[in-house]
Amino acid sequence: MTPRSQKAAATEPVIRDIVPSEAVHFSGLTAPALRTVLGEAALPADCWRIGAFLEGEPAGLLLSAPGFETMQDLTTLMVAPGFRRRGIGRALLNTLHQRAQAAGKRGLVARWSNRLPRAQEFQALLASAGWSAPVETRRRMTWRVGDWRKGFPRRDQILARLRAHGLNDRSLAELGPEGLAAFRKENAALIAAGRAPEWASAEGWIEGADSDLSLVLHDRDGALCGWIAVYYQPQWQRWFVPQGWVVREKVPQGWLVGGIASLIARLEEKAGPEGQIIAQPPAGIAGGMEAMLHRHFGPYAVAMDFLNESEFLFRRDGG
Ligand SMILES: CC(C)(COP(=O)(O)OP(=O)(O)OC[C@H]1O[C@@H](n2cnc3c(N)ncnc32)[C@H](O)[C@@H]1OP(=O)(O)O)[C@@H](O)C(=O)NCCC(=O)NCCS
């Protein structure tokens, strides 16, 4: 399976991209949901599957995919138990640093579950490579699209009532280029005026978002009241809802719920009931999306945990 030349250096790991035919040797080193990536014939741009071989044996795996705002995500880093503490994890991580920097990325980010059994050693490796101290940032919830309906049996009535009271929910496609430009301008103006928090900025979220599913909410006078971003992640074959925001005064009126109701209806149509949807809203924001999603749909989630996050930013001078 492995060329003889790779056996030359007995103690130095060989680090290289792995090919689909090698998938079987690495599948135990990543989560079941990510295993399909190993066998894909071709990966989207800047998606990397990097293997470590020691004396010809598959010893470690690193998976990485593009993140937001030119960050690069470290998705999996795992060294097989018999090969640990021999510098393989560090060699894989170094390769990621070099590649991401050569690709012009701003930095690297890793998010991992608070349930990760061996988080301490992973954190120790990141810390030894200069990554930031981990912070708990988001609650992660995964559903089957069809199950969202169970959390929202009166969805269509609620949406109709909110629309009758002025909710104007439109996708990016329905807004069109001019509407989108006006939305971005107003979003920035609300933040500048202190009427919306910094995290309500759609910049960095809206680029590359799915234009049929990502929504912008206005009132009947045309004032911006919120947005929800949705992405299709082809590498994981799932729909991702990273963030949503509704202006404070509309939250008690149920407009965030209305936005989600609209999103579910559109998702069912586009993704079908068997599609997978994952949300990672920021944790602990009063009246925010995390609390709302958890209350309505938490009982129907197929998986739920909190995410710790750490990052490494490249210096502008190349360091
Ligand atoms: C984390 C992991 C990838 C490290 O791989 P590794 O090849 O054993 O790491 P290295 O030998 O390159 O170690 C590099 C540095 O990381 C730190 N480190 C690694 N393992 C450690 C441990 N068990 N305890 C403390 N520090 C550790 C040390 O600083 C080490 O440097 P040192 O050996 O000079 O002290 C490996 O332990 C692993 O696969 N763990 C389980 C998988 C996992 O949880 N992955 C994260 C989610 S994707």
Notes on the structure:
The chain has 319 residues and is an alpha+beta fold. It has 2 domains: 4-131, Gcn5-related N-acetyltransferase (GNAT) (Aminopeptidase), CATH 3.40.630.30; 141-307, Aminopeptidase, CATH 3.40.630. 29% of the residues lie in helices and 28% in strands. It has helices at 23-26, 35-39, 88-102, 119-128, 155-164, 172-192, 255-271, 289-297, and strands at 14-17, 48-54, 57-66, 71-79, 107-113, 135-144, 168-171, 215-218, 224-233, 238-246, 276-279, 303-313. The protein has a 12-stranded mixed β-sheet with strand order 1-2-3-4-5-12-6-11-10-9-8-7, sandwiched between helices. Helix 5 (155-164) crosses helix 7 (255-271). The longest helix has 21 residues, at 172-192. Coenzyme A binds next to strand 4, helix 3 and helix 4.
- Associated small molecules: coenzyme A
Distance between the termini: 37 Å
The CATH superfamily of the largest domain is known as: Gcn5-related N-acetyltransferase (GNAT)
CATH architectural type of the largest domain: 3-Layer(aba) Sandwich
Topology at a glance:
Layout: E1 14-17, H1 23-26, H2 35-39, E2 48-54, E3 57-66, E4 71-79, H3 88-102, E5 107-113, H4 119-128, E6 135-144, H5 155-164, E7 168-171, H6 172-192, E8 215-218, E9 224-233, E10 238-246, H7 255-271, E11 276-279, H8 289-297, E12 303-313
Parallel strand pairs: 4-5, 10-11
Antiparallel strand pairs: 1-2, 2-3, 3-4, 5-12, 6-11, 6-12, 7-8, 8-9, 9-10
Bound molecules: coenzyme A.
